[in-house]
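Database export, one record per block. Field names are fixed; values are copied verbatim from the stored entry.
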Amino acid sequence: MEQSTVIFGIRAIIEAIESGSTLEKVYLQKGLRGDLFFQLDKILKKNKISISVVPVEKLNRLSKHNNHQGAVAKISPIEFANLEQIIENVIESNKTPLFLVLDQLSDVRNFGAIIRTAECTGVDAIIIQKSGSAPVNSETIKTSAGAAFKLPICKVDHIKDAIFQLQAAEIKLVAATEKTEDSVYDIDLNQPLAIIMGSEHKGVSNSILKMVDYKGKLPLLGEIDSLNVSVACGAFLYETIRQRM
């Protein structure tokens, strides 16, 4: 599928959610009211689906002026994987687990580039948060060179939920952060591992940093004090592969 499927109409969106479809985002007309709308709003909040309140002109463009009833949704082009099942499968395979956790990464091009590198380096799954994360849309798919169809991507209510599950499986957590004196090259990456990359502007959140086993940074020898997150992610993943080889 080259791009997200657009559906429109309040009842159609409700039926899509109830049938198990993964919605990338729902656009709602500003000032929308009525019993059916409140039913939709309740379901969206219950399932923690991303919502954007927009002018009617935006909905007209998205639906190509069809009768959208004030609601348009984009269905994700991929099906998200179950994290608990993925962890179980990886442990049973007897390979050394390697997970990638993205803490509020928001840029779809960075996301796509990271998915591509992760697939090339044998990452078992990428974990993202339901809200606040870059969507898996047509641009993400394109930038990933199709890797998004090959690598499991798991959505969790909160990154901390994933961390608890990984810790329960005795998987160590390594955060990529400048808030440390430790180099990634001094960390033992040849063990069950989850690498955590932060957002483009804030990095890994402080609350997550308090939960990890290791913090590592890359050497920066120029005048610029940070790397693009997809580049930094690639460096962390390939150092992991180097140690494991």
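Remark 1: Strands lie at 5-8, 23-29, 51-54, 71-75, 98-102, 125-129, 153-156, 172-176, 193-197, 214-216.
Remark 2: Residues 28 and 191 are 46 Å apart (CA to CA).
End of record.
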